Amino acid sequence: MKMSGAQMVCEAIIAEGVKTVFGYPGGAIMHVYDEIYKQNGFEHILNRHEQASVHAADGYARATGEVGVAMVTSGPGFTNAVTGLATAYMDSIPMVVISGQVPLSLIGTDGFQEIDAVGISRPCTKHNFLVRTLEELPRVLKEAFYIARSGRPGPVLVDVPKDITVEIGDFVYPDTVNIPSYKPTYKGNNRQIEKAVEAIKSAKKPLLYIGGGVVLSNAADLVRELAEKTQIPAVETLMARGVMGAKNPLLLGMLGMHGNYSSNMAMSETDLVISLGARFDDRVTGKLSEFAKYADIIHVDIDAANIGKLVDVDFPIVGDITKVVEKMMPLLDDVNPDRYNAWREILKRYNELHPQSYVDSDEVIKPQWAIERIGELIGEDAIITSDVGQHQMWAAQHFPFDRPRQWINSGGLGTMGFGFPAALGAKRAHPEKTVINITGDGSILMNMQELVTAAEYKIPVINVILNNHFLGMVRQWQTFFYEKRYSETDLSFQPNFKALAEACGGIGYDVTTKEEFDAALKDAIEQDKVCFMNVQTNRFEDVLPMVPAGGALFNMMLPQKTESHREEK
Amino acid sequence: MPKVVNERRVISVVVMNESSVLARVTALFAGRGYNIESLTVAPIPESEMSHITIETKGGVKVMEQITKQLHKLIPVYKVIEHEEMVEKEMVLIKFPIAENLSNVAALCAAYNGGIVNVGKEMVIAQVADEPKRVKHFIEAAQRYNPCEIVRSGVVAIER
Ligand SMILES: Cc1ncc(C[n+]2csc(CCOP(=O)(O)OP(=O)(O)O)c2C)c(N)n1
Ligand SMILES: [Mg+2]
Fold first, then answer.
1. Beta-carbon separation of A308 and B27 below 8 A
2. Does domain B7-83 have CATH number 3.30.450.20?
């Protein structure tokens, strides 16, 4: 069929089954927007900033596992999208971003709104394309989606010069992709898998170390089965919250810098780490030479470059978690789960010694209480997104995550401003679910313009602002490591969050007591409108436990035990 | 794992012949803090591929990461970390014509090279040999007051 390049872009998006595109128009991409106007194969949501468009597409992808799509214009449109690309890149999120570019004839002339998009995005995309001819456009679009979702997923940028969007040519969307130089490994080497299983059977203190790869591979059910069959205890990374399920007795909790005591101790004492889709990030390992010092390591990862990058691995397995664990399961039929009884007993005692806990208060709302309360009131039905800071860590520690893709946060890049737009994407993907962005008074302002987007498109996302009048996480480091010199972290000067939400067509709640919290949250769920819940919390709460950066995992700063200690089951 | 710090290594990278592929490879080295001592690139005849040869330095772990990260680039077909290789490098040197040309010619001959161009004021000598020998040749050439030296970087082929 004959059509313009702009139409081809739309046809490809439809052919890929994408229902929602997030974006922002401008000169170089106007022909595509003209075609968007004419078609009805997908909806387009106009965010109020390109960064938000990319985070929204990212949130859509994280909530569904499908490729998210964002569209931006050249120059500033593209540069605004870079933080979104980098965020998705660090967490391996499948995404295609289509950017306009100046016409081919102007490339290299410093034309109006010309910027080298493929040059800038090279280190923060899985791959990128500058389209050079109309003939290659259908193939490039097909490859972009394929590359984004296959192997280790990631964002792909397709930069389309304006003249190519205008030009008319034949369109056949390819059925298949053939990139001879790109063949991801899925299967996992059988011999290596057998060896790893033998190691599991002869270990005394094995530990499942579960990372975001399990979520990406949709392998959570399988991994739970693996744990249940073998009765091997498990720890989750920040990106894997929800995989095991909060009520799972085999789950010790989250490990790492703000991991709980038993998780970090388990990692320090295990004799066999079974790493599934985790990448030994420095926020997880602490001091590398002390990390899992007594353990052999099985490392299953679809990305060979992750294996052996930071720690030496005894049983490397390159492959998709689902495929590899499927192969492991029958080989483990004769495993004796009682074998690890003594180990689980030790860990249980560690957990009793220092459970995840905090000191609650009757005077003021503690952030941890607020998060637990959301869990109690909505729990399983909610999707939780978050920004970056203390509130993010408390959410990861205290929310009872029950399933994968219930927890959406920027783990790798740690992007403040991610939570609200990501929540828009998640809510669009799952309108039946309550979507709550647990955020801070610093982070929320980094994409607050999305109030307008949410109000216009009726995307009722609840923003719970845990307001400590601080850039709290930075303040915490200043308290601990900079002798309380609170350089540029005091946010005492505040906007009127309630009025701000209302000014943009949403609802605002000022919350200072637990009763108000419950009432506001219930109302917010019923109202079905975007809202800010401005929750005043105590200012100087610290996220604990904490392993100071570069310290060994077993050297944790722990919360004080007092009368009003509230311990979780 | 034995740690050999900063060992010299030669890697061949076979890539799809597309416009930005060299930028991808060099950006990877720059972004991840790996060294490039020399780099050569040319199309592989009668194919849609190019051959990039990179001379680099690093310990075992770094080398492993370099090859794995190169593999991850979508247009990269093959990465060869050379072990048993034949490697060659070429050098062109310009000498003032006033130098003792028969001595220069003899020196070049000792390194399997020769004088390839004679102008009004300068002669140009060429040597293509193993990188180590090229280095020695350049050292030996110093006494004839070379005014310009251009090295090609290494190409290698596994035996
Ligand atoms: C875009 C960006 N800029 C700066 C930082 C560094 N940073 C990490 S946490 C934090 C404070 C966040 O404050 P707030 O959103 O109020 O959360 P709190 O820690 O108070 O819960 C800052 C500035 C970041 N992660 N992202
Ligand atoms: Mg704050």
1. no
2. no
Considering the segment(s) B86-158 as one domain, its CATH architecture is: 2-Layer Sandwich (3.30)
Question: Which domains, from first to last, does chain A contain?
Answer: 2-170 (3.40.50.970), 190-353 (3.40.50.1220), 367-543+560-568 (3.40.50.970)
Say if ligand 1 is within 6 A of residue A468 CB: yes
With helix as H, strand as E and coil as C, how does A174-223 read? CCCCCCCCCCCCCCCCHHHHHHHHHHHHHCCCEEEEECHHHHHCCCHHHH
Answer yes or no: is the C-beta of A388 below 6 A from any ligand 1 atom.
yes
Active site residue A478: no
State the complex-level ipTM.
Answer: 0.91
Contact B75 A119 (CB under 8 A): no
How far apart CA A296 and CA A77 sit, in angstroms, is 48
At B42-93, the pLDDT tens digits run: 999 999 999 999 999 999 999 999 999 999 999 999 999 999 999 999 999 9
Domain boundaries, chain B: 7-83, 86-158
Among the atoms of ligand 1, which is closest to the Cα of residue A491? 16
CA distance B50 to B15: 5
Q: Which entry of A3, A30, A113, A225 is annotated as an active-site residue?
A: A113
The pLDDT tens digits of the residues spanning A364-380 come to 999 999 999 999 999 88
